[in-house]
Design goal:
about 150 residues; mainly alpha; 3-stranded antiparallel β-sheet; about 10% strand
C-alpha cells in the first residue's frame, strides 16, 4: 500500500489541473497563465517576479514569457521596484478582476467536486498528514544538503 501513495500523490495535482484546465479553456487560458494569475491574486499585488516564480514552482526566466503574454492581454503590469531597480514587481490590472473571479469560481467548484464524500474531519486529517510528509521531505533535503556540503 505504501508504494502506491507516492504515485497517487504525483497523479492528483495533474488530475486537479487537468480538470481546471478543461473548464478554463473556453476563456482562452492556458495552465501557466491561470496559475500565474491565480497565485498573484492570492499573494497580492506588487510581488517581485522572482518571488512569484518561487511560489508557482518555476524558474524566474520561465515565468517571463508568461508575464509577457499576460501583459499583452492587459491583465498584468510590471513595474520597477523602488528599492531595487533591477527587480520588477507584478501588478494585476482592473481588467484581470472579472477573469480572476471566474477562475476562483471554477477552482472552488472543482475543489467541492474533488472533495465529494470526504468529511471536514477527514480533510483536516489529510491536511495534517500532508503537512507532516512535507516537513519530513524538507528535513530530508536539509540533511542531504548538509551531508553534501561536508563531502
Amino acid at each position: 500500500m505504501n508504494e502506491n501513495i507516492g504515485f497517487q500523490l504525483s497523479r492528483l495535482p495533474r488530475l486537479w489541473r487537468a480538470i481546471i484546465d478543461e473548464r478554463l479553456a473556453p476563456l482562452g487560458l492556458t495552465q501557466t497563465r491561470w496559475v500565474t494569475l491565480y497565485h498573484l491574486w492570492r499573494l497580492g499585488d506588487g510581488q517581485p517576479q522572482c518571488d512569484l516564480a518561487r511560489a508557482i514552482g518555476v524558474e524566474a526566466p520561465s515565468l517571463v514569457r508568461t508575464l509577457d503574454q499576460l501583459s499583452r492581454q492587459g491583465l498584468i503590469e510590471r513595474r520597477p521596484c523602488e528599492q531595487d531597480r533591477r527587480t520588477k514587481r507584478v501588478f494585476l490590472t482592473p481588467a484581470a478582476t472579472p477573469l480572476l473571479e471566474r477562475i476562483d469560481a471554477v477552482v472552488r467548484e472543482a475543489r467541492r467536486e474533488m472533495f465529494d464524500g470526504i468529511s471536514d474531519r477527514e480533510l483536516a486529517t489529510l491536511a495534517e498528514l500532508l503537512s507532516r510528509m512535507e516537513n519530513n521531505g524538507l528535513a530530508i533535503q536539509a540533511r542531504d544538503a548538509e551531508e553534501k556540503a561536508r563531502s
